[in-house]
Design a protein that fits this description.
It is a single chain. 39% of the residues are buried. The chain contains 19 helices and no strands. It has 2 domains: 174 residues, no CATH class; 278 residues, no CATH class. The chain starts with 5 loop residues before the first helix and ends in an 11-residue tail after the last helix. It has 464 residues and is mainly α.
Length: 464
């Protein structure tokens, strides 16, 4: 089940909210746990077993860590943390990467390992990271152990961010699991944020996504530079509004149930460097790798060579986290190299240059990076990059697509900057209050009308 579906909007969500708020406060976590499992099992009921296993294993390991620490057995506590991490990574590696490695081994003649054709559990890359953070946070003393298994299970399966994030570390939500505020203002803010995210996803991402699909499906050997750039700009807008729209919907849903989730995007396309871009894009993933891999490896504290090593490790893992395909690894290493160059000398040069130079520099490298991300076949990838920096192609097709999609592309470009937010904040409190109601209702009605009349409604990050 996806948020931008009629079943979710007009059946699942209203029923869940009604039963949740009718239930006494002490039962609400249990009610939410039931509906979390129903949400996840809607399309893949067999994988609810994985959820139960994750809940049981990580709950038990949290208790083991606490008991060992209380008794002064630090080695035993560390062993419990390692055991939890191994379990979670084994789960992720098996379901997401087993067939990938088996197929690659078969390709080089090692055929005793056979692909199993395993279906990828939706959202496994997100929720394994979240559950893995629990025992680490408890061990570090950043969060207290959760002794109520129903409350812990609710955290593991929390449906607003279960499928595609934001990746919420346990310590960020620990205080809200057992005690959170259910206020009218928070609920209203949740509705506005959800409807804004729904509009971003349905009205912008889906439409520019259709343009990208058309460009990628064309004959890349005859693709001209203008059409190639138009296509990758469309993909850049699609993935931003698709993923940030989903994150906004998740944050909005969280508020409806009394939670406050961390921000996941902060206008990344206004960045003036790749370093800045990755502080603004998928913030929750970046903070996870920083807190649990980069800093434990030494971060930037042990000299430049080790910092380079740490950057390479983190970005190789970041790339591979996105999918079992070599292009994702190349995408991660591509940004690793750029980040190392920026830390060495590029950032100093960019600081001295006019702002527009940094913006052009960052956008150019980001768009090239999206080609590595979006095109899995290396042959097609090479053709696409060649087209971007070459000549040829039909001007007529470019003019046709540009004329057809110019309004939605312009809307996407403006919407990916803080301009609209700045204008909104200039309004007084009362106009903003009434305006939020009107805009939320308008976004919901228009998005619903689109969903009724269109079957094109992909979520890009569902496959990660």
């Amino acid at each position: 089940m996806v948020f931008s579906s009629l079943v979710f909007l007009f059946a699942y969500l209203p029923i869940t909210l009604a039963i949740y708020y009718l239930a006494p406060l002490r039962w609400r976590n249990a009610v939410l746990l039931v509906f979390n499992l129903l949400f996840y099992g809607w399309g893949e009921p067999v994988y609810i077993v994985i959820m139960f296993a994750s809940i049981a294993i990580d709950y038990t390991h949290g208790m083991l860590v606490t008991r060992a620490k209380n008794r002064g057995h630090i080695r035993a506590a560390k062993a419990a943390v390692v055991s939890s991490v191994v379990f979670n990574l084994a789960l992720l590696l098996f379901f997401k990467y087993y067939d990938f490695f088996a197929a690659n081994l078969n390709a080089i003649g090692v055929d005793f390992v056979k692909p199993l054709g395993i279906a990828l559990p939706i959202g496994i890359s997100f929720y394994t990271f979240q559950t893995m953070s629990y025992t680490i946070d408890v061990y570090r003393g950043d969060a207290k152990v959760q002794r109520n298994i129903l409350s812990f299970g609710m955290f593991v399966t929390l449906f607003p961010q279960l499928i595609a994030g934001p990746i919420i570390k346990y310590k960020e939500l620990a205080d809200q699991i057992d005690s959170r505020d259910h206020t009218v203002d928070r609920f209203a803010s949740g509705i506005s944020t959800f409807c804004a995210g729904l509009a971003k996803k349905v009205l912008i991402a889906n439409n520019v996504g259709a343009l990208w699909d058309s460009v990628l499906a064309s004959d890349l050997t005859t693709l001209g530079a203008p059409m190639a750039w138009l296509g990758i700009i469309a993909f850049a807008l699609q993935i931003y509004f698709d993923f940030s729209g989903y994150s906004d919907m998740a944050i909005g849903l969280g508020r409806m149930f009394g939670f406050e989730f961390p921000q996941n995007f902060n206008y990344p396309y206004v960045s003036k460097s790749i370093t800045e871009f990755w502080r603004r894009w998928h913030i929750s993933l970046g903070s996870f790798f920083r807190d649990y891999i980069y800093i434990p490896l030494g971060g930037s504290r042990k000299g430049l060579p080790k910092q380079y090593r740490n950057i390479l490790v983190v970005w190789a893992l970041t790339g591979f986290w996105h999918g079992a395909s070599w292009n994702f690894l190349c995408w991660g290493l591509y940004f690793a190299v750029i980040l190392m160059l920026e830390k060495t000398f590029l950032l100093k040069l960019l600081d001295r240059a006019p702002n527009w130079v940094g913006h052009v520099y960052a956008l150019l490298l980001i768009l090239v990076g999206w080609v590595l991300f979006a095109v899995e076949d290396f042959g097609q990838m090479g053709l696409y990059l060649k087209a971007m920096f070459g000549f040829g192609g039909s001007p007529a097709s470019f003019v046709y697509y540009l004329a057809s999609y110019a309004p939605i592309i312009a809307l996407g470009i403006v919407g990916s900057t803080p301009l609209v937010k700045k204008l909104w904040l200039r309004l007084g409190d009362r106009p903003r209050a009434y305006g939020a109601i009107v805009l939320a209702a308008f976004a919901l009605v228009i998005s619903t009308a689109y969903l009724v009349n269109s079957s094109y409604n992909p979520f890009l990050y569902f496959r990660f």
